[in-house]
Design goal:
This protein has 14 helices and eleven strands. It is α/β, with parallel strands linked by helices. The structure holds nicotinamide-adenine-dinucleotide and zinc ion.
Length: about 350
C-alpha cells in the first residue's frame, strides 16, 4: 500500500521486506553509501536480511549497532554514531537507515539531522508504536539527563518502509504498549475506528496480518493528517498529546519501568475522567475505555504513586511551555480539544480512577 500525501516522502506498507529493494531503487542510491542504524535486539532478528537488500541498491552498506533500550537514546550514542560515520567517510550525499523501534528511529533521525548539518535518512520501523506513531511526522531527538526528548530536530525521512510482518517477533508487552497510541488515535479523531478496534480485539491480539494492516493504515492516516495540518506543533498537533501530560509524569516517576504506551493509556483514562467531570462526555464511556484497554492487555491501574506527586511532576512539562499546561480533553469520542484551564485539583481527581 502506498500513501502519498503532502508530506514529501512516501510511506510503504508491506508484509515482508519483499518490496524494499524496489523502493530503495527509486531513490537512486547507486553512488551512495548507506549506514543501517539499529539496536542489538533488532540486529539479531533483521539486520542480515535488510543489509543484503540495501547492499544490492547502493555503493556500500555499513551498519552501526547500539545496545537496545531507552537509556541508550542519548548524546553518547550519537557521538559514537558520528565517530563511526567519520571513520567510514560518510559525506553529504550518503544516507542513514533506521531499522528498529522508536528509540532507533529517534536517535538515527537526530544523527541524520545533525551530521554534516543534515544528511538523508530512511525509516524502517519494526515496533507497533514506531509504525503507527514515531516514524511519522519528522520529530527526531534524544534524551538528556533525566529529560525525555530534550534535544532534537525536525527532520523528514525520504522513505518510510513499514513491514508489518516484523510485528510477529514483538513481545506481548511491547505490542500492547503500541496499542496505547492506537486507542488514543481513535479517541481524538475517529469514533468508528475506536469501535472497530473493540470489535477486532481478538484478531488484533492474534496479530492477524489482514486486520493489522488495516490498523496500521488507519492509524498512519490519522497521525499524518494531524501532522500535515500542523507540522511544527502550533495547534492541531497538540491533540496527539491526549493522555501524555499525566502519562509522561507517570512514566518519569516509574523511572521508565512502565512503558510509554501503557502510561499514555493511563493518562487517557484520567483525561476522560476529567472530561466526564466537566460534563463534556457521558460517564459510561469510562467503563467502555477500560474494557478496550483490558482487551489489549494494557494496565488500567498503577500502584505506588501518589496523585500529588504525579501532578507535581507535570509542572516540569509546564515550565517548558511558557507556564501553561495545554491539557487535552475529550468533547466526544473521536473529538478532542486543547484546554488551558484544567486545574491541579481536577487532575488529582482524574487520577483517582487509575491509582490502585
Ligand atoms: P524501542 O525502540 O525501545 O523498542 C522496544 C523494544 O523492542 C526494544 O528492546 C527493541 O530492541 C525491540 N524490538 C524492536 N523491534 C522489534 C521486533 N520487530 N521484534 C522484537 N523486538 C523488537 O521502543 P518503541 O516503543 O518502539 O519506541 C519508544 C520510543 O519512541 C521512545 O523513545 C519515545 O520517546 C519515542 N517516540 C517518538 C515519537 C516521535 O514522534 N518521534 C513518538 C512517540 C514515541
Ligand atoms: Zn506517545
Amino acid at each position: 500500500v502506498h500513501m502519498n500525501g503532502t508530506l514529501i516522502y512516501e510511506i510503504v506498507m508491506e508484509a515482508g521486506f519483499g518490496r524494499l529493494k524496489e523502493e530503495l531503487k527509486k531513490l537512486n542510491l547507486e553512488e551512495r553509501k548507506i549506514c543501517i542504524v539499529t539496536d542489538s535486539n533488532v540486529a539479531s532478528l533483521y539486520l542480515e536480511e535488510v543489509e543484503s537488500i540495501v547492499s544490492s541498491c547502493c555503493r556500500k552498506a555499513e551498519h552501526f549497532i547500539f545496545p537496545a533500550g531507552e537509556e541508550n537514546k542519548n548524546l553518547d550514542t550519537v557521538k559514537n554514531l558520528y565517530e563511526a560515520l567519520i571513520l567510514k567517510q560518510f559525506d553529504r550525499q550518503d544516507y542513514l537507515l533506521a531499522l528498529g523501534g522508536g528509540v532507533v528511529g529517534d536517535l538515527c533521525g537526530y544523527g541524520a539531522a545533525t551530521y554534516l548539518r543534515g544528511i538523508s535518512f530512511i525509516q524502517v520501523p519494526t515496533t507497533l508504536l514506531s509504525q503507527v506513531d514515531s516514524s511519522i511526522g519528522g520529530k527526531t531527538g534524544v534524551d538528556f539527563d533525566s529529560y525525555k526528548n530534550m534535544v532534537g530536530a525536525f527532520h523528514m525521512p525520504k522513505l518510510v518502509y513499514t513491514n508489518i510482518a516484523s510485528l510477529k517477533t514483538l513481545s506481548e508487552e511491547q505490542f500492547s504498549s503500541g496499542m496505547g497510541e492506537i486507542i488514543k488515535h481513535g479517541l481524538i479523531k475517529d469514533e468508528p475506528y475506536y469501535r472497530w478496534l473493540m470489535e477486532h480485539a481478538t484478531e488484533i491480539q492474534n496479530r492477524d496480518f489482514t486486520v493489522l494492516s488495516q490498523l496500521v493504515l488507519v492509524s498512519n492516516q490519522i497521525k499524518r493528517e494531524v501532522v500535515e495540518k500542523d507540522p511544527t506543533e502550533q495547534g492541531e498537533r497538540a491533540l496527539l498529546n491526549l493522555g501524555h501530560t499525566l502519562g509522561h509524569a507517570i512514566e518519569k516517576l516509574s523511572d521508565f519501568r512502565l512503558m510509554h504506551g501503557h502510561c499514555v493509556g493511563l493518562g487517557c483514562i484520567a483525561a476522560m475522567a476529567i472530561s466526564i467531570n466537566r460534563g463534556m462526555i457521558q460517564p459510561e464511556e469510562l467503563s467502555r475505555l477500560l474494557s478496550v484497554m483490558e482487551a489489549f492487555g494494557m494496565p488500567v491501574t498503577v500502584s505506588g504513586l501518589s496523585p500529588e506527586n504525579i501532578v507535581l511532576t507535570t509542572r516540569s512539562d509546564k515550565k517548558m511551555d511558557s507556564g501553561t499546561v495545554r491539557f487535552i480533553l475529550l468533547e466526544q469520542i473521536g473529538k478532542a480539544c486543547v484546554n488551558k484551564t484544567v486545574t491541579e485539583a481536577e487532575m488529582t481527581e482524574g487520577l483517582r480512577h487509575i491509582l490502585a
